[in-house]
Amino acid sequence: MSRRKIILTALCGAVVLLGATAARSAYVASSSSIPRPLSVVTDNDWGVIPDPPTADQDLTVIYRGDDEEVQYEVDGEKPVRVDVTKTGRFVIPRKAFQGKKGLTLVAHGGESGIRVIRF
Amino acid sequence: MLRNHTILLSLLGLACASGAAASAQSSSSTIVVPASCATREGNRRMTVHFAEQRTRRIQILVDASQLAGLRGSRLVRLSFRKEVVAADMYERLRGGEVTPMVVNASFTDTKAASPSPVFRDNHGSNVVEVFRGTVTLPKVTSDEDRAVASFDAIEAPTLHFTQPLPIVAGKNLCLDFETYPASAGHAWEWPIDAEVHRVAGTARAIGQACWPADETPATSVMESSLRPGMHLKSTSRTPPHTVAAFLMYGWSDRFAFGTVPLPLTLWAPNCQLTISPDVLVPAVHFRRVSVEDEGQTSQVVPTPQLTSLYGSTIFLQYLFLVQNGSPTLATGNGVAATFTTQTPSLGVSLVATTNTTSSSGRVFLDFSPVMQLEAK
After folding, report:
1. B183: which of A56, B199, B273, B304 lies 20 to 30 Å off by Cα?
2. pLDDT at position A3
3. What is the mean predicted confidence (pLDDT) over B38-64?
4. Predicted local confidence at residue A43, as pLDDT
């Protein structure tokens, strides 16, 4: 067996193993009968006004994370980069949403750095 | 005569002594942390302390050098400062917004340059609960033309310590805030002024993603996260129909596992492994509006506080399992991420989490809210 095949087999095996473990963890978490403490709150780095957003209003976006630059991407359009060092707040005009199904807000924050908005 | 004189001198001595004692008791001092922001606005803001329905644990480590101006024996008050650059954020305040909060504090040997992500490890031996209660946020104007706000209680969130903290000279201060959710019935945030010393490493793309990504490079690393002891932050676009995302970390972009030359084609025609897959971890990924669109993934991973990591390079690359008909593998571009060679210099750092039951948080070096501390 060539080295390429060994590495490919190892990677595929790891992918399957990790995928199965993640799926099992998700199942266990969702089916657990143990109530989670009310104080456990993991929230997103993003806030929007209005919340929930609608396609017929300007959208004010508030970023609470520590990235210096973030981006938003309206459905089917090129990503737009925004400097958030000054205020952490920016407005996307409603005309950007005409005929669109949603947008994505992206920062380097792991799970909390991404917010997908569907109208 | 001599007796009267003696009595008079005794009385005078007593008066002087009691005056001095009274003077010592009433003497107090205030300092601003970080000292560099005493008379100017900080360069960032924090919205994490005070907001509608927000839960946080934030530990602030302040080096002893920042506390040198404190005179007195006990810490009795702490105030945060209003942000003036983003003052429009205050327009949603209606008055009476509150944040329930518990503050524990201690003097410690842990330095701001090297905080542990584990909260308990940063405290000293004598931890005092200095505040437990509700902070009422002042209703301030959003119309602001000053260069910097004041620490006057009329516009500065102020915590009068219910249990003063005895000052230990030469030690560093650990302030540990736990905020709990409270609802005013409407969305609001009360940002506070903050200061950051930005230090960054460098990130270089290796190769390219093996699908026609709408933005290149598809994978990026936040350069200011390339500091030993902080958290390395990366994000990537994902190909359409992604069903699983993984992130590979490696020590080389020349040989996989030290023997197999790179790049190595994993999947035809051009999905290449460009880094050694020494560590493979799953990553959360998100679809955008449709499964036909590219999606997004991101991961944050802690990096150890090792001297040897300064200036060193690690490599990373995302790997995707794609299911569009038959399953295939896809790869993002590789990234060579080089850590900074600069050590922390602000004298204040944070450890923070949104989960108050967690024993650890994310480390933010050289990051501080602008605070005024009072000692008596």
Report:
1. A56
2. 67
3. 91
4. 58
Query: Is the Cβ–Cβ distance between B106 and B125 less than 8 Å?
Result: yes
Residue B18 has pLDDT above 50, yes or no: no
Whether A108 sits inside 8 A of B277 (CB atoms) is: no
- Give the bridge partners for B135, in sequence order: B99
How far is residue B90's CA from residue B84's CA, in Å, rounded to a whole number? Answer: 10
- Is there a contact between A99 and B236 (Cβ–Cβ < 8 Å)? no
Task: Compute the distance between CA of residue A27 and CA of residue A29 in angstroms, rounded to an integer.
Answer: 5
Cα–Cα nearest to B56, from B160, B182, B144: B182
Query: Three-class SS of residue B2?
Result: helix
- pLDDT at site B289: 81
The shortest C-alpha distance from A105 to chain B (Å) reads: 10
A23 touches chain B (CB under 8 A): no
Average pLDDT over residues A16-27: 51
**Helix spans in chain B (H):** 2-26, 119-122
Question: What's the token pair of residue B274?
Answer: 């460009």
ipTM, 2 dp? 0.79
Angle in degrees, CA B159, B162, B165, rounded to 5? 90
Confidence label for A88 from pLDDT (cuts 50, 70 and 90): confident
At residue B181, the pLDDT reads 87
Q: Measured between CA atoms, how close is A36 to chain B, in angstroms?
A: 11
Tokens of A83: 């400097």
